[in-house]
Amino acid sequence: MAEERVQRRLAAIVVADVVGYSRLMEEDEVGTLALLKERRATILQPLVRAHGGRIVKVMGDGVLLEFASAVNALSGTIELQRKMADANASLPDARRIVLRIGINLGDVVIDGSDLYGDGVNIAARLQGLADPGTVYVSAAIRDQVNRKLALNFDDLGRKSLKNIAEPVHVYRLRLEAAPNCREGQSALPLPAKPSIAVLPFTNFSGDPEQDVFTDGLTEDLITDLSRNPGLFVIARHSTFAYKGKSPDLRSVARELGVRYILEGSARRAGGRVRINVQLIDAAGGDHLWAERFDRNLEDIFAVQDEVGDKIVEALVGRFAQPPSRKRPKSLEAYDLCVRGRSLISAFNSSPEALREAEIVLSQAVAIDSEYAEAFRWLAFVHWQLWAQGIEPTGTNRTRALELARKAVALDENDAASHWFIGYLLAYEKRWPESDAAFDATFRLEPNNADALAIRSELVAFAGRASEAIELAQRALRMNPHPPGWYYWQLGFAHYAACQYEEAVRILRMEAIYRSPSRRILAASLAQLGRRDEAMREAALFMAMAPKFTIAHWAAAQPARDPQIVQRFIEGYRMVGLPE
Q1: What is the rounded end-to-end Cα distance, in angstroms, of the chain?
Q2: Bigger pLDDT: 174 or 1?
């Protein structure tokens, strides 16, 4: 007989065990077993499914898990430790179920449903080294996630592990404590880079009409800082959740997972503008830098540049700056553009708001024919008129592409113009050009959360669902209080990965379901066999989108992998959406 061929694969392996298991069993065997069973059913199993993993086996006081990626393994493990800590909070110390965890990325040998090999052995040895409540990882894991997840590690050096030929470089994941968190709220781990949130500037002009101008200053400053690869910058939508409030800055920093907060005010009157800004270390409450600018209104863009430069210098020192975006030549055009973008709520605009935005943005480009950002937003308006079915004509689609091309030509350093034209080119099935445009975006603006979320959809349609989930999760880390369409993108990616339970959970996180969310939610419920709920969601979707047909949807999608489209078609047919 021919020798059976050994199967191998690369996997992220997690080994966890219960600290003090023998003592717990000795003191209360029945109670301990019941508690472990409850934790596995309510915490471990749902969490592993949610992160695309599988439980290989349960070993009394331990468990062996497999994940397809290091990012999913580490994200799931962090959530596991936090949920275990939350569940332990009401128990006396002597009865708490505390885990120590080791994670490794390596080759494994497949034997039926079981796994063997050094990839598993190293994870087990790391778990044996770990302190109670901690997570130890190999360098292979740390290197994989270092540029993808905002985490901190303690370098423990190279360790000799039992029955492992070569020493392994070991890192301890730094699980940030959150003693002041509100009940039920977990603190986000601090990124390795200096992290900052820019709160909405306060309008001190005494004129509510100047709110748009003040908000525009804040948004432009966030964009400028986001271009710096040495910083981790929270997206605009999350910081504007605090507009009009006077929150405790330490609470804000904890909720957004940053160390530094920038706050300020602006007063515009009589052709002059006065701006006050202060940079605060929220961890210690120290003011790192503060300054007041009193300038002619025409100098506003120079002030924006100066503020950004001083923040970067204070946090990461002086080094080569990314190429600057082109500023508008006309302050009137700038005011119109800021007003236009304020009318556009990303992917959720009313027809009236889009029409008004079209008018003011058309005025802006008429005044300044080289204003790239205004052209980009005008392109977005025409695309939305087509995509939202408000005016789904070929003219709007073509016009959107023309205006987006013009925006990139006018300012090749505007990252948002690149991702937007990349998105449009995907709908034209021009994949290499689309990929190149997104690559340019992330070179120019590493902190562009919207681009990550949009890219997630295109990657899912290319058949790379796990990567799509990772992109959407990274976007959510940069934008912890996101617009609802972020959840639609993440739910979409989970459906593409056949993770229907997680898709349902995420799609129901939106306060108000938009039509794409209800459509995918209905299909996810149908795949889970929850027919009544699925049919209800399908009926609600059709009430919102009465002209929908499966054939039109399938033909319009930017899909490189036809199997992904077919997976959605299958779900849509299960709930009776029209062909």
Answers
A1: 53
A2: 174
